[in-house]
Every structure is written in C-alpha cells, then in structure tokens.
# Entry
Amino acid sequence: MKKNRRLNLKYRRIQYSTISMTFFLAAMVFVSFILIFTIVIILLRYAFKVNISLASFMPSSEVVSRNLLFVLVLISCLLVGYGLTLLLSKGIMHPVKKVTQAMEELSTGNYKKRLSFRIKMPLFDDISFSFNRMASELEHTEMLSNDFINNFSHEFKTPISSISGFAKLLKKGNLSQEQIQEYLGIIEEESSRLTGMATSILKLMKVENQTILTDVKKFNLSEQIRNCVLLLEDRWSSKDINIDVDFDEFFIDGNEELLKEVWINLFDNAIKYTPNGGTISFNIKSKEDKIVVYVTNTGSEIPAEHQLRIFNKFYQVDHSHSAKGSGVGLAVVKKIVTLHNGEVFVISGNKKTIFVVNLPY
# Structure
C-alpha cells in the first residue's frame, strides 16, 4: 500500500512537472509572438510615417508603390512571425509529446520503457528521473507479483497433491496397518501445513490492510520474548538446540499481540534453519531512542542476493521448497515492524545469521 502511494506521488510529480513545462513553453511562444508583433508595429509605424511625408509631393503612382511596399512588409512580417512561432512551438512541444507517449506505453504494461531528453534542462532532467524511477519500481513490482503467484500456487499445490495421493492409496486398500498409520500421519501433517499457511496468509492480510497502529500500551519486551521461547520449546528441544536468552529487562510501547508474532516468526525461522546441536541466541540493547533486538542462529548462511527479498511474500531462499514453511512469516514480520515505525534487516556470514529489529521507544 505504501509503495502504491509512493508511485502515485511520483506519477503526480511527473504530471505537475509536465504541466509546469507546458506553461513554460506556452510562455515562451507568447513572448516570441509579442516580440514579433512589436517588430511588425514598429515597421508599420515607420512605413506609415514615410507614406505621409512622401504623399504631399510624390506622384500618385509612387504613393501606390509605397502602399504596396507597406502591404508587402506587413505580409512578410506576419509570415516570418508565423514561421518562427511554428518552428519554436514544434521544437518545444516535442518533449511534452515524448512524455505523453512514454506514459501511454507505461499504461499498457511496458515497464521497461525509459525516458531521456536531448535538451539538457533541470526541468527535463527531473521529469526523466521521476519517470524512470517510477517505471523501474513498477517493473520490480510486476516481478514480485509473478513470483508471488508462482510460489503461492506451489506452496498450496504440494500438500494438496500429497493428501490426494495418499488418500487414493488408502482407498485402494491392501495395506498393512503400519502403512495405513504412516499414510494417515502424512495426510495429517500436510493438512496441518495447509492450515498453518492459511492462518499465516490471514495474518498477513490483516496486517497489510492495517495502516494505523492500535492497542498501543507499555509492556515488558524481555518477558514477552522469554514466553515466546517457552511456546516453541518442543520444536527447539527436539533438535537439541542451545538457547541463550541472557538480557536485561526492557519495556516498550507497542501492540503486544502483533510484536509477539514478530518474535514467534523469527524464532520459528531460526529453529528451522539451525542444525541439530546448534545455537540460537536473543539479545536486546538500548541505542539512543530505540531498542534493538538481535535474533542469531548458527547454520547455513543466506546469500547476499537473497537478503533483501526474503521479506517478500512467499519468497524462499531454498527454491526447491524442501524446507517446511510458507514463506509468509518474514513478510508478516516486516509489515508489523513497519507499523511500529521500526526496521528489520538480516546480516549473514561466518556460518551465522542475525535478524536485527529496531523499534523506537
């Protein structure tokens, strides 16, 4: 939603710049016309004075010649003025037509279109920069939309296909009790996975449609994180993961329910990618007017090219989708932290991954 607002502002900026440019060009044409008109008036006045002074003693034929000269001068000035105005307007209005054509191409879905002008003016540079920035963001948004659709269909299709396949095997019969229990367990697991994805998507939709942070109150952030660790004890204890939650007491103003989702999602993500016997640590520090929470886990690193995209909906570093998860959790984290006027980013290297959350007091 914020991205759409930014694009709308950029589009308005281009519109305002185009309007300003149009007025500027119109003013130049008007000034040119005034100059030509002034020249014509001066020439007419000169010709008229010469006409009067010569009329008293010149033969009638010469007076006629002077009148003819006067008319020719008038027509010549008008033709020259019209020609100059036409050339000037065509040359100046060309950038306006170029912007219009580029906007039309952009509206048809050609987000690779870029704008440039031969005329080097600050106004034209500003228009081309804003247009190209908007086109680039629209192109990036289209790529994210395509990735979202592909990942979304894959994440839902896989468990449904699994459930359908094992249900057909159960329907055929001729299975041992051990096989029946195994297949039922897989169906139950995949059903839970679908339920979890549906819940995650509903949470994402809820926070995405929320623009104002509500239910803000002061609470103990340290205690909340400790409770989240206890909630997921079965998961990290089953992998024999070492947990380090040694920090002081910190209090913060925020939506307690939403921030709880942040820590659960980050902790769940850390458990998923921490190997058996690895370590996950939580650390909280106070820096100036903000609280910084670090969630660190040992294990495989996140490549640099993926570190910005992992907060996109349904994006997963493991493109084989072998790891369990919907790819929605980090998108929820990003949105909730943004609602709190904070920021979240990841640092990965030396067999360690750190998620950093900055929250204002």
User: Anything to note?
Assistant: The radius of gyration is 36 Å. The beta strands are 216-220, 242-244, 251-255, 279-287, 290-298, 343-349, 352-360. The chain has a mean pLDDT of 76. The chain has eight helices and seven strands.
